[in-house]
Amino acid sequence: xxxxxxxxxxxxxxxxHPNSRKVRAIAKKSKKAIAREHTKQTGTVKQNLIREKxxxxxxxxxxxxxxxxxxxxxxxxxxxxxxxxxxxxxxxEKNKLxxxxxxxxxxxxxxxxxxxxxxxxxYNGCGIEIPNILNSTQCEMLREWDGDVRWLPNFxxxxxxxxxxxxxxxxxxxxxSEEKLxxxxxxxxxxxxxxxxxEKIDDKKEEMYAQKINMETENxxx
Length: 222
Fold this sequence. Notes:
By secondary structure, this protein is mainly alpha-helical.
């Protein structure tokens, strides 16, 4: 019996029938209170998991780069997925020692392995949710965040998957290539008038030289 039901029943001055409307109302109220408490606990657990993920990323981000590039974002997420590999390897090596009959830390190893598989599936599928560090404001906020969960609503979260990051990287490279071509064409357009002017000057010189030769030839003939 929940504490809510006990508290409500203790307020009653007489014994209630199990099928009475009063008892049903108390049970309904108790069910709502339990659901509300469960939601609160679930939200707290989720916030703590997000907090741990963000703090890990802050510690492993490349300094002095803001915003992050898609390629660096992919590398950061892949490092995050593999963050427990050393501990898993240590447990496996410890269990391989001669003379050991029982598998120590087996449950811990299973938890880490299942977490990695789940995160890897998310990364290869819908993506892993992290703050949008491709945005300079969000990236700077993450770097300066002190771990207080009260500020989590200020972050803009985005799912980054392997396919999504590869597409963003390709788009970024294409944009850079287009910008280079655009700058090159602008330089060519700026330099072309000078070339035309130089050609005109050369033509003028040749024309003047031809006129001079003709005049000298006429003088000789005279």
